Amino acid sequence: MKPEPGRVMQILALDGGGLKGLFSAAVLAELESDLGVSIADHFDLVVGTSTGALVALALGAGLRPSEVRDFYVNRGPDIFPSGRLRVIRQAFSPKYSQRPLRAALTEVLGDQGSVTSSIDTGVTDMTGMS
Asked: Which residues face 48 on adjacent strands?
């Protein structure tokens, strides 16, 4: 994405942290509600790390921040489980299983190999998840 000369790019960067994505989604939902605007319309690029990338992906796919917040409330505990066994398991494998995440994303976004985005998210392909 090449900006026009003299034009300032508006970039929204979202942090990672598992279920903490709920916080980012909730803040964005409140901003939309309080200001009466669409957050996605105010940024040229939305990016994120880890769960922040999931929020960026959802916004790029056309979901409202309130829908993303509800996704984290309803599906977050399945995707980001807590417990002692998880702490032991993560010493030998990834922190969280991708199966619940893949199932939840497929449910929300559909079974698509890539996402057509209304905003530039820097996320163009989900096929790397296996």
From this structure: 14
The token pair that represents 28 in the structure block: 């964005």
Distances (CA, A) of 46 to 13, 25, 39, 77: 6, 13, 10, 25
3-state helix, strand, coil in the chain (%, to 5): 50, 5, 45
**How far, in Å, are 84, 111, 115 from residue 106 at the CA level?**
28, 5, 11
Tell me the residue type at 112. Answer: Q
Q: Residue 99's pLDDT band (boundaries 50, 70, 90)?
A: confident
Q: How far is CA 117 from the centre of its chain?
A: 13
Q: How many residues does the chain have?
A: 130
* CA–CA dist 64, 87 (Å, integer): 33
Digit-coded pLDDT (tens) for 28-74: 999 999 999 998 888 888 888 888 988 998 898 889 999 999 999 99
pTM metric for this prediction: 0.73
